[in-house]
Amino acid sequence: MRILMVTDDLLLGGAARHVVDLCNELCVRGHAVTLAATDGPMREFLSAQVRFIPLNLKNNRTMKNSAAGSLPSLFTLTREIRLGRYALVHSHKRYAHAVCAAATVSVPIPHITTFHSEPIGGRFRTFTGDHCIGCSTGITETLQSQFPHMRDRCITIPNGVHPLREYTEDELSNVRKELGIPPEHLIVGTVGQFVPAKDRDTLLHAIRLLRSMNDLPAFTVLLQGYGPLEQHLRSLSRALGVEGTVHFLPGSFPVAATCNLSDIMVLNSVTEGAPLILLEAASVGTAHIATRVGGIPDFIEDRVNGLLIQPSDPKALADAIRTILQDPGTASVLGNAARSRYEASFTFGTMVDRIEQLYTTIVRPA
């Protein structure tokens, strides 16, 4: 099957990683895949078997979508769709949805959209294509509510990820030394872009609260990511007096190292789709403290395979982290349960099987 995959960008992040991994696996399964996107660091991980078409849907410096680049991208995609003899077009993210919707108006080709987060802008600024995939139950329900005529063509396919490599004790020791973390320190990790939705301010305020408590073991926080708020977060950590506790790690630092090192991970976003980092950490037996937003509760059951808290609440976050720091055995129990849930329902192969089944149903209807 000839498939045209389109996304806004290949910047570091969960959605780009999802798209790249999906393209690679579809090629392995015998499909001919072309990917069109704004170029970025994630292209390094794209298989040589996947044909790549550069677009200009996002400004790599500001990380904002580029309205000026939409028209040239539309011309590029329209020509590609007309000449490429594709069985279907599969778009990811808002600008890609819009451009693909326009490009397929005059061409009788199925257009599938995947929504990695809640649709933005309401029904008049959301383009659904002919079939929708929601990465979480909540996303699908929102789409079905906003677009009743699409109810039977909106389905949930939960994200899946490849398991991360598990580090040996020697490797963990070496990474600790590299980062200057004493062997007796417990580690709290967090991975994600430095953008408002991830609410790193609340995490830093929670760390300040923890630092004021006298009954806690020594701990270090690994804050991994990149984005426009990095300098603000560094300044805030100094202002709060927690710069000695927080290690800022670049987005290019191995995610597997952070997940393996951490006794517990934190994802305290104010909005979310279906974050891959929950699954990646779980694949190596590390659980998350996370906010009860978006698709997070689809994976985490509170006090079973993680801890759930309300967003924008530094005290609640500090109390949850304190629970783990005072009893690291709890983190181990939660981590083992998270791994079991990942292996049962959220593997990469399971996700691709369901996407491939949808493709077949659409292209060769019964």
Fold and architecture overview:
By secondary structure, this protein is of the alpha/beta class. It folds into 2 domains: 2-160 and 347-363, 3-Layer(aba) Sandwich (Rossmann fold); 169-345, Rossmann fold (3-Layer(aba) Sandwich), CATH 3.40.50.2000. The protein is 41% helix and 19% strand. The chain is built from 13 helices and 15 strands. The chain has helices at 14-28, 70-84, 94-103, 137-146, 169-179, 200-211, 230-239, 255-261, 276-283, 296-299, 314-326, 328-345, 348-363, and strands at 2-9, 32-38, 51-55, 58-59, 64-65, 88-92, 111-115, 131-134, 154-156, 186-191, 219-225, 246-250, 264-267, 288-291, 306-309. Strand 4 (58-59) and strand 5 form a beta hairpin. Helix 6 packs across helix 11, helix 9 (276-283) crosses helix 12 and helix 11 packs across helix 12. The longest helix is centred in the C-terminal third of the chain and has 18 residues, at 328-345. The mean pLDDT is 94.
Using only CA atoms, what is the Rg?
21 Å
Report low-confidence residues grouped into runs of 5 or more: none
- What is the count of helical runs? 13
- The separation of the N and C termini measures 17 Å
SSE series: EHEEEEHEHEEHEHEHEHEHEHEHEHHH
Which word captures the global form? elongated
How many structural domains?
2
* Chain-averaged pLDDT: 94
CATH homologous superfamily label of the largest domain: Glycogen Phosphorylase B
Tell me about the biggest sheet?
Answer: 7 strands, parallel
CATH topology of the largest domain: Rossmann fold
| Percent in helix | 40-55%
Helix/strand class: alpha/beta
Beta-strand proportion: 15-25%
CATH class (first level) name of the largest domain: Alpha Beta
The side-by-side strand order for the widest beta sheet comes to 3-2-1-6-7-8-9
Give the beta-strand count.
15
CATH architectural type of the largest domain: 3-Layer(aba) Sandwich
